[in-house]
Amino acid sequence: MNVRKEIINITNLINNKSGYSSEILKIHDYKDLDQRDIAYIKKCVYSEIENRFLVDYVIDKYSDLKIDKLDKKVLEILRMAITEMIFMDNKNYAVINEAVELAKKETKYSSYVNAVLRKASDFDITKEELDDSIKYSVNRELLELLSKSYSHKTLKKLLKSFFYKSDFVIKQNTLKENDLKSKLEDKGFEIKIHPFLKDSFIVENPSGIINTEEFKNGKFIIQDGACSLCAEILEPKSNSIVLDICAAPGSKSCNIQEITNSQSLLYCNDINKSKIDRIKENIEKCGFKNVQYLNFDATVFDDSLVNKFDRILVDAPCSATGVINKNPEIKLFRNKEDVKKLVKTQREILGNCYKYLKKDGILVYSTCSLLKEENEENAEYIEDVLGLKRLDIDFYGEKNKYVKLMPFQKGTQGFFISKFQKIH
Q1: At 185, which CATH number?
Q2: Looking at residues 382-411, what average pLDDT do you find?
Q3: Which of 44, 268, 318, 368 is catalytic?
Q4: Residue 148 lies in a domain
Q5: Average pLDDT over residues 9-13
Q6: Is the dihedral of CA 130, 134, 138, 141 positive or negative?
Q7: Which of 15, 47, 73, 136 lies in disulfide reach of 159, CB 3.0 to 4.6 Å?
Q8: 312, 245 in Cβ contact below 8 A?
Q9: Could you tell me the pLDDT band of residue 65, with boundaries at 50, 70 and 90?
């Protein structure tokens, strides 16, 4: 199997918006490739997508044809090769030779590929004056939205953080295990106690951790630190009825049942039936009980749920701009129209959940977005339009109107959490 052909197959899937890169890379069939080749494919794909606009800038600089006039396979071969030359520390002559050979097999334009790449091998990024959209490979509409949400100084930090890697965080399932740190350390894993999450750890060398008996037996789940904070802020109680309305993949649902020792009645909902199966699998592996599963569109009102729940978690579908470092294609494709539609969806879900919540019940609203339209402005909508009372959140010893984790601050991904009570 040709490694570079596989890279092009995967980038084509991402370009066609067939799924997030992290998921595509996880489930892609690498057939007979060894682990070193697979690691190379993943690194090259991520590097290209992370730097797509810069790579295209280089192609434009040295090509006689504009990108939109190029044969699609030729374009992908050029993108891959330039990525290898600039970001993969490969010898330029070796990259060019491989790209030309692939172009001979897949296209009629090997001479053109050879000419462009030989000129591009002289590219020196330190001598280029690049605007932020190209330098950080963020589409101009998203850059404008971020600019509205943050100061210039904070925006620069955010743009740089899109290339950071978040901490690998695991959450101990205390119903099954109370000495996880020691047991994993005995197996050679480097474990640090998480700075602000209960029973959570940062794993410095996570390779192979999903093959441990502890993971297979549900003694811990893999979960970004920001996510597990949602259940702590929700504060579910024993004998309460709880709704996790956008529950996939189920890790927050697991957190809720762990906190209550499975003594709450939890309803997990998702619009996607296959995701419900995944939630159920995670819940059962961890040994949690008293869970019901729902499969409906959260934007569609269900009168059978009115005044039913003591606690509701709305971890809403969003722009996912807080997880760009995991799925870099978001910064290429996300636009203003996407965000407008998402805000409409979020408010439809919130309006329904207001009706599902009992008087004095608690609602937690969260997103993995960095945009004010989906975060602060929706929190104001919940308070001012729906009429819920905003509750302070204790975090790091201080009371906050909301918790906003930035990807350059805490080693987590970007996340927003707010908390409300229905008072009438």
Answers
A1: 3.30.70.1170
A2: 91
A3: 368
A4: no
A5: 91
A6: positive
A7: 136
A8: yes
A9: very high
Tokens representing 62? 């040295």
Could you give the CA distance from residue 124 to residue 102 in angstroms, rounded to a whole number? 25
Domain carrying residue 281: 225-421
Looking at residue 234, what is its pLDDT?
96
Name residue, tokens 């690691």. Answer: 39
Interatomic CA distance for residues 190 and 219, integer angstroms: 17
Residue linked to tokens 């959570």:
200
- Rounded Cα distance between 320 and 399, Å, is 26
* Known catalytic membership, residue 368: yes
Residues 108 and 206 in one domain: no
Taking Cα atoms as reference points, which of 159, 78, 164 lies closest to residue 116? 78
Helix ranges, 188-305 (H)? 213-216, 225-234, 251-259, 273-286
CA distance 359 to 341: 30
DSSP secondary structure letter of residue 309: E
The Cα-based distances of 29 to 73, 187, 267 in angstroms read 21, 29, 34
Same-domain check for residues 8 and 85? yes
The predicted pLDDT at position 397 comes to 81
Q: Give a yes or no: residue 142 inside a domain.
A: no
Q: What pLDDT digit, counting tens, does each position of 121-156 carry?
A: 999 988 999 999 999 999 999 999 999 999 999 999
Q: For the purposes of burial, counting CB atoms within 10 Å of the CB of 278, is it exposed (0-12), middle (13-18) or buried (19 or more)?
A: middle
- Rounded Cα gap, residues 69 and 87, in angstroms: 25
Distance CA 319, CA 368 (A): 8
- Compute the mean pLDDT over every residue in the chain, rounded to the nearest whole number: 94
- Determine the pLDDT at residue 1: 58
Is the domain of 398 the same as that of 375? yes
Looking at residue 29, what is its pLDDT? Answer: 84
